[in-house]
Design a protein that fits this description.
Layout: H1 16-24, H2 30-33, E1 36-45, E2 48-57, H3 60-63, E3 79-86, E4 92-96
Antiparallel strand pairs: 1-2, 2-3, 3-4
Length: about 100
């Protein structure tokens, strides 16, 4: 089963759990986060169910065809943050990958 978009309606803003992690742990600028979108996909990490997340700048969605989580496999340079949240637990990990351009 593949989860194309949160809510199935196209790119969405960052989920509250990821937003909180980005601001508190990674010290990301809250104003800059409002310009970002995310895609999520359920998966397993070491037999634990997780939601994978990729966060990218909303303008990236206009320059390339981002249809689902795996669309960013073709454009890894657009992924600003990537990580996961355990579905049945509390663990969250998000890593910065690329700095925003501009």
């Amino acid at each position: 089963m593949m989860w194309l978009w949160r809510g199935g309606e196209g790119p969405k803003g960052i989920p509250r759990w990821a937003y909180t992690y980005l601001v508190v742990v990674l010290k990301a600028d809250p104003d800059a986060l409002s310009l970002l979108k995310c895609v999520e996909q359920p998966d397993y990490l070491e037999k634990r169910p997780v939601n994978l997340i990729r966060i990218f700048h909303s303008e990236a969605a206009q320059r390339v065809n981002i249809n689902d989580f795996s669309s960013l496999d073709l454009h890894p340079e657009l992924i600003l943050y990537e990580g996961y949240k355990e579905i049945e637990g509390e663990e969250i990990e998000i890593f910065p990958l690329n700095k925003p351009s501009g």
